[in-house]
């Protein structure tokens, strides 16, 4: 009787041939036992997060839920134990992940087989539910039929037990090939995004996941759409500066560029065996780049590349024999009607056909013996500082609560940067610099005069008045007469200069302009001219007496009238003496 592996191959072959009748997509991929278990772990962690717990799950709970899931989907009787808590939510999250990734599991293929098979050519039931349960759970004791055999791989010979590194490297190879067939496979993108290292670690994957959730797309479409907008979009279509994916532009661009190179090989090389070998060689080149020949990843990559090349050639020969004999065999993914490059789309159909057969064989491989190695966080390091753990990738990084202080080194450096004086650029200021708003005084200027009470009131203090000795009345009367005459002559000279100065400055004032408009501008009396000169003289004296550092004080002037022929002259008895050079300085600023 046929081995269980061969009967599983028949079931998958019927699904590939007739799967278009029940599925909307033509490039649906299959998850094997290990893939189903990893998706179940993610679904349980997501349910725990929805209930306010951490995004993690114990290994014992995953194995218990794994048994319940297999028995429930295969419609087998459940053991006499209590039903799992939140099992309905876990099952819903599990099915939602499969649907979102355009993938199915082996149990779904078995349930679709009855309506897809041809009654005259295909067997009625190649695999029973209990046999599939035994295969997926890796429990040979459950097989209750007499002709049961040890579950074997679909290939002609059983692969020897591989190390954990080889399993991880082979999974990366198949994930890259799966993205060429099914771009919606989120599990494949999670396993290849940062392998080899592209500086796209946990934070980058979280940002991609959030972008995919906001746009309701797959992870791969979220990455490619962002990179295409950066490369081809104009300024109006560029993503916002606050977009978190902008921090990972280089790594995401390298990832998309590498997949574009694989797509070009897929469309340009018509021979599937040659094209498959080139694809595997390109993946091997990026994995071993920068590694020595003695590295474990280098040796495993060489071995895996050789095995996959040989298997692709064998599958292509088998499909050619089937096509010549009884039919087309596995139906390839047909190109869309709106495909831009029809030659590229049709040129890769035969290669896609071979790749689907290779991925199906990988899905039908026996499950891992050690579940702890598959689900643990300590995965083999293929690139970067740590291995690719699916649970850690899908777990959002914890935000800092602020309770733990910043490292001392960072705090000292930030304090030094704060205290470091900032260089000021030299500013060219014009003659109207007094109208600018002055900046803050430097510290040395502030310390010179800490308070306003200590600031000097005058740079050149006025001389002290001298005490004059007493004189007789007669002498004093003579002196007064002489001083009066002298002051009168001085006042007349100043009056004439003031009148001339007023005539020059007169047109600038509004009152003078009004007088100029009248007809009697030339017929001014001597009294009016005398009054104008006195006013101008009083204003000039007020301006001269003003100090530079203090406001002008009110001056009380007492005028004494001196009788002159035809004129009345007013004289200021008390006048403060100007300091040396102050009159010239005042006239300079007046001009």
TrEMBL record:
InterPro entries cross-referenced by the UniProt entry: PARPBP
Gene3D superfamilies: PCRA, domain 4 (1.10.486.10)
Any GO BP: negative regulation of double-strand break repair via homologous recombination
Biased composition (Polar residues): 486-500
Similarity comment: family membership: Belongs to the PARI family.
PANTHER family reported in the protein's UniProt record: PCNA-INTERACTING PARTNER (PTHR32121:SF0)
Protein name: PCNA-interacting partner
Organism encoding this protein: Champsocephalus esox
Source taxonomy: Eukaryota, Metazoa, Chordata, Craniata, Vertebrata
């Amino acid at each position: 009787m046929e081995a269980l592996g061969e009967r599983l191959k028949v079931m998958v072959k019927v699904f590939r041939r007739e799967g278009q009748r029940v599925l909307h997509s033509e490039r649906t991929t299959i998850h094997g036992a290990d893939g189903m278990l990893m998706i179940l772990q993610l679904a349980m962690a997501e349910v725990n997060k929805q209930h306010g717990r951490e995004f993690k799950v114990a290994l014992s709970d995953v194995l218990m839920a794994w048994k319940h899931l297999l028995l429930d989907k295969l419609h087998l009787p459940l053991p006499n134990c209590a039903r799992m808590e939140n099992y309905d939510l876990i099952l819903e999250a599990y099915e939602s992940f499969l649907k979102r990734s355009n993938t199915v599991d082996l149990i779904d293929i078995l349930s679709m087989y009855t309506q897809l098979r041809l009654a005259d050519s295909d067997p009625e039931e190649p695999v029973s539910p209990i046999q599939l349960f035994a295969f997926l759970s890796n429990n040979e004791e459950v097989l209750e039929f007499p002709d049961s055999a040890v579950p074997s791989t679909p290939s002609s010979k059983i692969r020897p037990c591989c190390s954990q590194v080889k399993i991880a490297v082979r999974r990366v190879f198949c994930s890259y090939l799966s993205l060429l067939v099914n771009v919606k496979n989120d599990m494949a993108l999670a396993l290849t995004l940062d392998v080899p290292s592209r500086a796209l670690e946990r934070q980058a994957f979280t940002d991609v996941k959030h972008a995919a959730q906001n746009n309701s797309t797959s992870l791969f479409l979220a990455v490619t759409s962002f990179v295409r907008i950066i490369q081809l979009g104009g300024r109006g279509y560029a993503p916002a500066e606050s977009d978190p994916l902008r921090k990972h532009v280089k790594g995401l661009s390298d990832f998309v560029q590498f997949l574009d190179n694989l797509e070009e090989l897929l469309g340009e090389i018509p021979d599937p065996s040659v094209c498959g070998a080139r694809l595997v060689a390109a993946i091997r080149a990026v994995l071993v780049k920068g590694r020595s020949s003695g590295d474990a990843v280098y040796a495993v990559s060489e071995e895996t590349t050789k095995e996959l090349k040989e298997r692709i050639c064998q599958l292509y020969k088998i499909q050619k024999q089937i096509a010549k004999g009884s039919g087309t065999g596995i139906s390839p993914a047909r190109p869309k009607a709106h495909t831009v490059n029809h030659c590229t789309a049709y040129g890769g159909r035969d290669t896609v056909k071979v790749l689907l057969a290779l991925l199906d064989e990988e899905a039908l491989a026996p499950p891992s013996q050690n579940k702890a190695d598959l689900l643990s966080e300590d995965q083999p390091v293929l690139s970067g500082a740590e291995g690719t753990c699916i649970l850690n990738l899908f777990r959002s990084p914890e935000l800092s609560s602020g309770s733990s202080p910043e490292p001392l080194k960072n705090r000292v450096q930030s304090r030094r940067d704060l205290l470091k004086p900032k260089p000021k650029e030299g500013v060219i200021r014009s003659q109207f610099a007094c109208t600018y708003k002055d900046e803050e005084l430097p510290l040395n200027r502030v310390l010179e005069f800490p308070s306003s009470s200590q600031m000097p009131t005058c740079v050149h203090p006025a001389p002290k008045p001298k005490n004059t000795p007493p004189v007789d009345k007669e002498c004093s009367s003579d002196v007064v007469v002489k001083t009066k005459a002298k002051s009168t002559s001085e006042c007349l000279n100043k009056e004439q200069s003031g009148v001339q100065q007023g005539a020059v400055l007169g047109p600038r004032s509004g009152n003078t302009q009004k007088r100029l408009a009248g007809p009697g501008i030339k017929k001014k009396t001597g009294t009016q001219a005398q009054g104008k000169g006195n006013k101008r003289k009083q204003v000039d004296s007020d301006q001269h007496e003003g100090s530079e550092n203090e406001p002008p004080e009110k001056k009380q002037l007492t005028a004494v009238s001196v009788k002159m022929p035809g004129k009345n002259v007013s004289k200021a008895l008390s006048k403060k003496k100007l300091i040396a050079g102050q009159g010239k300085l005042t006239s300079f600023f007046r001009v």
